[in-house]
Amino acid sequence: MVVLLQPPLADRIARAPFRPLLVVSFTLMAAGMGVMYLRGTPSLLLGTALFTLGEVFLFLRCDLELVDRVPGNPAFAFGVQRLTAGIGGLLAGVVGGFLFAHFQDAGEPEWFWLAVAAQCLLAALTAAALGGGRHARTHRERGADPELEAAR
């Protein structure tokens, strides 16, 4: 889904206000986890699709936001994003693995999905309250960068 949807939506994602996009993304992720709680292959597929749709918006927009906030050094901004994603993926795997094992041992593995949904809802509420302290400018709004123009 990311490969198919993100490229055609990239301009809209770049222009979207940061805070509402964070809220919508995390809400989609929470909905996906909630659907997975229902069990069964169709629920897992639909839940995965909802979660991934949240990722389609979230990850690209966060990349663009950091590039905007670290002007003149996009390589550093993307490097930080990749490092953050890697550390987050590692922690999610370790903590999520232990959490899933806990629910599995308790005989209720489906409750794992609700625990993750609650985390996603908490992230959505936090984003609504605190996210995007300033408005990022889109590439079109920024205009030409005088330093880049001088280098050309």
Number of strands: 0
As a whole number of angstroms, the C-alpha radius of gyration is 18 Å
How much helix is in the residues? over 70%
Secondary-structure element order, as H and E?
A: HHHHHHH
Report the sheet with the most strands, covering strand number, pairing sense and barrel closure: none
What key attributes describe this structure?
single chain; 152 residues; mainly alpha; 7 helices; 0% strand; disordered C terminus
Explain what this protein looks like in three dimensions.
With about 150 residues, this protein is mainly α. About 80% of the residues lie in helices and about 0% in strands. The chain has helices at about 1-15, 20-35, 40-70, 75-105, 110-130, 140, 145-150. Helix 3 (about 40-70) packs antiparallel against helix 4 (about 75-105). The N and C termini lie far apart (about 35 Å).
Topology overview:
Layout: H1 2-15, H2 18-36, H3 41-69, H4 74-105, H5 111-130, H6 139-142, H7 146-151
Helix pairs in contact: 1-3, 2-3, 2-5, 3-4
Summarize the structure.
The chain has 152 residues and is mostly helical. It has helices at 2-15, 18-36, 41-69, 74-105, 111-130, 139-142, 146-151.
